[in-house]
């Protein structure tokens, strides 16, 4: 039984992050954001749920992940060269849809106004041993909010950390957990409350 998906509260640690592998990159340059949730279960074990703000993962194989991540890491000032991008798309055509999404994504106004999707599919197993594939997504209580292109320059390089610190002083941050079973979406209401700022 997944104790953290029942009616009783369990403590969690939440870590927000940028997708850029270079720590010095400003928040606005890294379009995809991550939210890692570590549930501390009553039996002393933990369960981790890693999610990102793009519904399609950009790599189908480990080698594709290494090559594409290396491509973004080598991009000057965080902006990829279009010719190099074309080469990546030729080598990994299955990544085209997610890379197109990356191109169109805008910077979020807050970590707390993003929708986060699980990278992997998971299995629920009932008492009879039957497995059901599912996917997760977190929907923010605060609603979705992105910056316009002209607004990005008005924010500091670490504006997301600064915004979250200010927001937490005003009250808790919450998300609702949706579970997708095939084409059907089932909603679980889970409140995630941040008690202190966590370093990225």
- Please, how many helices? 5
Unreliable stretches covering 5 or more consecutive residues: none
The largest sheet, given as strand count, sense and whether it forms a barrel, is: 8 strands, antiparallel
Helix coverage percent: 10-25%
Q: Assign an overall shape.
A: globular
Radius of gyration: 18 Å
The number of distinct β-strands equals: 8
Q: What proportion of the residues form beta strands (DSSP E)?
A: 25-35%
Distance between the termini: 31 Å
Q: Based on helices, strands and strand pairing, what is the structural class?
A: alpha+beta
Mean pLDDT: 81
Give the SSE string.
EEEHHHEEEHHEE
Give a structural overview:
This protein is an alpha+beta fold and 200 residues long. It has 5 helices and 8 strands, in the order E-E-E-H-H-H-E-E-E-H-H-E-E. It has helices at residues 62-74, 82-91, 96-104, 149-152, 159-170; strands at residues 12-18, 33-40, 46-52, 116-118, 122-125, 131-140, 175-181, 184-188. Strands 1, 2, 3, 4, 5, 6, 7 and 8 form an 8-stranded antiparallel β-sheet that branches. A hairpin with a 2-residue loop joins strand 7 and strand 8 (184-188). The longest helix is centred in the middle third of the chain and has 13 residues, at 62-74. The model has no long low-confidence stretch (mean pLDDT 81).
